């Protein structure tokens, strides 16, 4: 196993464990739930096959669903995020994505925050729409999406900055 696969496997397991053991038990005011397992999808290598990302994202979401007893909503939201990831990368990083030269440890912090924020909002909107699945509760869905997205984005950016090697 090469070092990139080892790093991704370690990241997969650690984020899954932190999500299941710590983050699934945080429910602040009924609206704020951090879902940091999506960091794995954000940081998955760009040069890897897109089908591999979709399959691994489904597996990650399915494992979170199994531990959370949530019936598949995390798997659907994770696959949705993985599917739309190239569009997010292109809109956030532009030409760096075109040339496959994005290194998250050396990119502009504004582009990183844009990328994480857009992806988190999309993931959470899909997640809470499927979880609540009732048009009459659209305000609750939007509140949960907004507040959880803000909290998850802050945590995700902090984790990425703290654990990246070459951040200035």
Automatic annotation (TrEMBL):
It is a multi-pass membrane protein. It is found in: Cell membrane. The keyword DNA repair does not apply. InterPro entries: Cell_shape_determining_MreD. Coiled coil: none annotated. Keywords: Cell membrane, Cell shape, Membrane, Transmembrane, Transmembrane helix. Belongs to the MreD family. Its main location: membrane. The lineage of its organism: Bacteria, Pseudomonadati, Bacteroidota, Flavobacteriia, Flavobacteriales. It comes from Winogradskyella marina. This is Rod shape-determining protein MreD.
